[in-house]
């Protein structure tokens, strides 16, 4: 009976220690985001002005954005500052995630996942930058020019922020297509040859995604669909480097056993 209690305690202790470590890392993430938010909150209005720049540049003369809700002039810039603080903290958040899961991974998995985390972060930032510097000027120029005669273009600041954040998220996620492609090939779900055969469907799917995630204008839809297609081709090219060859199966098993022995020695 005592032996069973000892085994149960030995199983519970690592689980509890993992929970404690997870809690501490989550607290670090929250604290880091709050510190960054505290610094950005002093410049919340200036940050919102920068975000509104692509729209304000093409609005008619003597027009401005409006605030429908009473408290929106105060809360909307702070909401943007909080989102931006989280956005800036992504590398730190990913580092905490990596530090938590890395000890439980094999060497081969560590060599694979760390570059993917770095690349996925860069691609998400690249998608957001592409939306702000390329898509927004063209899209807002078209949308403001399309307003009927006699209609004053005056966008609510809260609705504009929600719209912009949605576009940022859509482009950031869609720019992760190379990562999705590489992971699918690396895990054995598909092969580069199979993906290459499905290229026409991928192109059609990219335009459908662009139609769903962007406003109903051909410019923004095309500016999302074409990069997705190009990034799919990039992911397809690099995925050939991660194809699991059947001849290397024995080496992978041997490497896994060696890693397991190293973990046992560390414990």
Question: How are the SSEs placed, and which strands pair?
Answer:
Elements: H1 2-41, H2 44-56, H3 72-88, H4 90-101, H5 107-145, H6 157-174, H7 177-186, H8 192-197, H9 199-213, H10 218-239, H11 249-266
Any descriptors?
single chain, 79% helix, mainly alpha, flat, 267 residues
Describe this structure in words.
This protein is 79% helix and 0% strand. It contains 11 helices and no strands. It has helices at residues 2-41, 44-56, 72-88, 90-101, 107-145, 157-174, 177-186, 192-197, 199-213, 218-239, 249-266. Helix 4 (90-101) runs antiparallel to helix 5. Mean pLDDT is 81; it is low at 6-11.
The description of the largest β-sheet is: none
Helix share, percent: over 70%
Q: What share of the residues does DSSP label as strand, in percent? A: under 5%
Taking pLDDT < 50 over at least 5 consecutive residues as the criterion, the unreliable ranges are 6-11
Rg, Å, rounded: 24 Å
Tally of helical segments: 11
- Termini distance? 26 Å
Q: What's the mean pLDDT score?
A: 81
What is the 3D shape? flat
Number of strands: 0
Order of helices and strands: HHHHHHHHHHH
């Amino acid at each position: 009976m005592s032996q069973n209690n000892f085994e149960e305690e030995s199983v519970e202790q690592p689980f509890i220690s993992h929970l404690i470590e997870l809690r501490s890392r989550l607290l670090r993430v929250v604290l880091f985001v709050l510190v960054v938010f505290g610094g950005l909150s002093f410049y919340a209005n200036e940050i919102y002005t920068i975000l509104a720049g692509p729209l304000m540049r093409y609005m008619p003369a003597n027009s401005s954005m409006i605030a429908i809700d009473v408290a929106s002039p105060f809360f909307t810039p702070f909401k943007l500052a909080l989102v931006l603080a989280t956005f800036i903290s992504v590398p730190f958040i990913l580092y905490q995630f990596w530090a938590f899961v890395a000890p439980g991974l094999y060497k081969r998995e560590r060599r694979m996942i760390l570059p993917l985390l770095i690349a996925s972060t860069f691609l998400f930032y690249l998608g957001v930058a592409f939306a702000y510097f390329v898509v927004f000027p063209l899209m807002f120029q078209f949308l403001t020019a399309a307003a009927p005669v006699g209609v004053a273009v005056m966008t609510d600041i809260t609705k504009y922020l929600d719209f912009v954040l949605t576009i940022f998220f859509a482009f950031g996620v869609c720019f992760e297509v190379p990562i999705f492609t590489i992971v699918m090939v690396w895990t054995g779900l598909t092969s580069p040859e199979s993906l290459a055969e499905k290229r026409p469907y991928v192109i059609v799917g990219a335009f459908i995604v662009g139609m769903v995630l962007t406003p109903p204008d051909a410019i923004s839809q095309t500016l999302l669909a074409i990069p997705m297609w190009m990034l799919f081709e990039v992911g397809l090219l690099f995925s050939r480097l991660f194809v699991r060859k059947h001849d290397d199966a024995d080496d992978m098993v041997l490497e896994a056993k060696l890693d397991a022995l190293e973990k046992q020695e560390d414990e």
